[in-house]
Amino acid sequence: SQQGEEDPQALSIQEGENATMNCSYKTSINNLQWYRQNSGRGLVHLILIRSNEREKHSGRLRVTLDTSKKSSSLLITASRAADTASYFCATDAPSGYSTLTFGKGTMLLVSP
Amino acid sequence: DTAVSQTPKYLVTQMGNDKSIKCEQNLGHDTMYWYKQDSKKFLKIMFSYNNKELIINETVPNRFSPKSPDKAHLNLHINSLELGDSAVYFCASSPNSRGNTIYFGEGSWLTVV
């Protein structure tokens, strides 16, 4: 069953602005990951945050995780046209053989 | 060098046909996957193999049969193709089956007409 739900479904901003995408999930997790998918391409891993972490940074990316609210956010600062893509959160269950369960994604359009 | 490669990238075929999609990873990973992405971009796990052994099979019709000749290859064979099978199929791999980063191939666009 689907675990993550991204919000908003689509986001349109201007270059230089910040973009924030949210992800909510339903069950307990081991970690949460964010992926990017450019049009016509495969998914590329961006960042992983473990359940005992609250915030993580990678370049212009900032991810937060609130396990009490079962939610995460991805912030892209100073966006560029090249950031135009779909962004997916994926959750990993804490036990058994794990496989990432993906949300439906947020489509981000960054206009020059 | 491509880490996870799958072929063909595009496949157009008629209903009722049988087709295969091949996948190879050169990352030395133990675990490989097949995901299906529908027209609304929803990505759903189909199968997962760990060291050539099937570990996850997510209620996929038995017309879909994965085959893993070795841990670097996971091929997907589809029998009696139906219109609803049209989607993008992604092969992927990860170091092991425990919550790692997943590395995706570029996808195979299957259109059934």
Structural features, described:
The complex is a heterodimer of chains A (112) and B (113). With 112 residues, chain A is mainly β. Chain A is 0% helix and 54% strand. Chain A has no helices and eleven strands. Chain A has strands at residues 5-7, 10-14, 19-24, 31-37, 43-50, 55-58, 61-66, 71-76, 85-92, 101-102, 106-111. Chain A is globular, with a radius of gyration of 13 Å. Chain B is 0% helix and 56% strand. Chain B has no helices and eleven strands. Chain B has strands spanning 4-7, 10-13, 19-25, 31-37, 43-50, 53-57, 64-70, 73-78, 87-94, 103-104, 108-112. In chain B, the strands form two sheets. In chain B, strands 2, 4, 5, 6, 9, 10 and 11 form a seven-stranded mixed beta sheet that branches. In chain B, a hairpin with a 5-residue loop joins strand 4 and strand 5 (43-50). Chain B is globular, with a radius of gyration of 13 Å. Chain B starts with a strand and ends with a strand.
Overall pLDDT score of chain B: 93
- Percent strand of chain A equals over 45%
Structural class of chain B: mainly beta
Q: Unreliable segments of chain B (pLDDT under 50, ≥5 consecutive)?
A: none
Q: How much β-strand is present in the residues of chain B?
A: over 45%
Q: For the terminal residues of chain B, how far apart are their CA atoms?
A: 34 Å
